[in-house]
């Protein structure tokens, strides 16, 4: 119902077809198949928990189809909505975008509604496989389990000499759920404000981003069960749980911050892409995540582009204080677990047609931590990406 109302609010203001409104419809599809080459499972997307590869060749974890409708209401006002269906969610449609955009002037635009959460260098077209050099962005660095925010953002463009700048300031609420039958459901409700700055000069584009969750509410079966157990233990044995621990483990009123640096360097044939992202919890028990990847690719011809990617996780475990109860301390350790995964990938893209690309990639990961099983699978994937 919420999605239906939002769609109606965005598109319902468009005039009748008899009036001068320009409509455009665009679409994309990615049909991805893959399997692991060892006994571990691999989840290529932090949000879509059902999308997991195992030793059987599977098309569902990352395959998706998207359709975007834009109505140009006036020369300054437009409405946009996008519907996506994913194999990982049994092809049920979802609405990641539904917003109004207004061009204040040639250099300033404001958007309001449901917007793609602008965390990463490729956030705006993360789902459009054809626009990416890889089958999907390196999963280790795309760490926020939410896709969109409902709010407002301002996008400004200006130049200083030979350098072009884009600044985005945004705020809103992330009210998102990771639906899964095979992995714990995660409910996220976050009030967030943030800013990003993207300077570009000829062959070099960079992106700096920072946002804060002013208030964050997180719920999952494991976290809620742990908090219930922690409260019960404190009630039975008053003073046994440090008050700081009760605060850090709370599901409500959490604080977090996200910061990222991105780089794209394009030398015609050779290109380099890198991102360093951090997700921190100042008062929580969750791990402080620090994730990096770098990709180097070479355009052998107009059609064929091979690439290699290096990935590294350098997390810090969350701050925990022992309760003395083995079961509760075990839960604390699991909830605050960090990742030290190191990985590499080698792949290639072949542009079969102007709107069709074929891709293949092999990815290998390793970790010294025994509880990091879903991060360390070796995976082979192939894909067909289409624009229409």
Question: Could you give a short description of this structure?
Answer:
By secondary structure, the protein is mainly beta. It has helices at 2-11, 221-236, 243-249, 326-335, and strands at residues 22-36, 64-72, 77-86, 93-105, 108-116, 148-160, 163-178, 186-201, 204-219, 254-267, 270-280, 289-298, 304-313, 342-353, 356-366, 379-387. The radius of gyration is 22 Å and the shape is globular.
Describe the model.
With 388 residues, the chain is mainly beta. It has one domain: Porin. Helix content is 11%, strand content 50%. It is built from four helices and 16 strands. It has a 16-stranded antiparallel barrel. Strand 4 and strand 5 form a beta hairpin. The protein is globular. The N terminus is likely disordered.
Radius of gyration: 22 Å
The CATH architecture would be: Beta Barrel
* Residues in β-strands, percent: over 45%
Largest sheet: 16 strands, antiparallel, barrel
Q: Span from first to last CA? A: 29 Å
- Per the CATH scheme, the topology name is Porin
- The count of β-strands is 16
Low-pLDDT residue spans: 1-14
Quickly count the domains.
1
Strand order, sheet with most strands: 1-2-3-4-5-6-7-8-9-10-11-12-13-14-15-16
Structural class: mainly beta
Give the helix tally: 4
Order of helices and strands: HEEEEEEEEEHHEEEEHEEE
What is the share of helical residues?
A: 10-25%
General form = globular
